[in-house]
C-alpha cells in the first residue's frame, strides 16, 4: 500500500481574538468545545468575545459561565448572556440583530464562530443568517450542534483535535451541563461518535468540523 497522503492544510496565522455566537447555553461547547480547548491552550490570554441569546438569570447561565471558563482556560473571556425566550428568537429579530452588531463593534476578532445555515432550529438559523451581515470581512465558520433533528451538515473545514481533547470535551460537557443529562443524546458516546466521524473524514483520530461560505486564498512560494 502507498503512503497515506495528508490533506491540504491552510493556516490562519496568529489568532489573538475570536468571536462566538450561540442561541443557547451549551451550543458553543457542543459545537466547538475541542477547538476552544486547543486554541486557549495554544494561545494563553487569547481574547474570546461570546454572545449567547438565552438563559440569563437561570441555572443555564451559571452552567455556561462555569463551562466556558473550563473550555477556555487562561483566556480573556467576555461572555454576555441574554434572556431571549428559547425557540422565539425570530420574534425578537431586532434585539438579536442589535446584540450581534454590538458584539461586532466591540470586537477585533480574526475568526468568528456561529451556527451553520442549515440548522433545523430556528434560533440557530437566525444567528447563522445574521452573522455575515455584521462580520462581513471575517473568517466565519459555521459549527454543527449535535441534537435529535436530522440536520447533520456536510462540512468543508475540519479541525483535527490533539490527543485526548475529544475525551476532555465530552467529559466537560457532562460535568458542566447537568441540566441536559436527561436528554437521550446528551452522553459521552454521542459526542465522541461525531468527533470520530469528523476525524475519519480528515484522516485524524478525532476532529470538529465547520462550514465555510467563502474565503480568499493567497498562494506563496516554496
Can you put this structure into words, describing what you see?
This protein has 222 residues and is an alpha/beta fold. Helices cover 36% and strands 17% of the residues. A seven-stranded mixed β-sheet has the order 3-2-1-4-5-7-6, with helices on both faces. β2, α2 and β3 form a beta-alpha-beta unit. α5 packs antiparallel against α6. It is globular.
What are the salient characteristics of this protein?
single chain, 222 residues, alpha/beta, seven-stranded mixed beta sheet, 6 helices, 7 strands
Question: What portion of the residues fall into strands of 2 or more residues?
Answer: 15-25%
User: Largest sheet, order of strands side by side?
Assistant: 3-2-1-4-5-7-6
SS-derived structural category = alpha/beta
Q: Which residues sit in consecutive blocks of at least 5 with pLDDT less than 50?
A: none
Instruction: Specify the helix fraction band.
Output: 25-40%
Rg over C-alpha atoms, rounded to the nearest angstrom: 17 Å
The SSE order reads EHEHEHEHEEHHE
Largest sheet: 7 strands, mixed
User: Strand tally, please?
Assistant: 7
Number of helices: 6
| Mean pLDDT score | 93
* Terminal-residue CA separation: 28 Å
Shape verdict:
globular
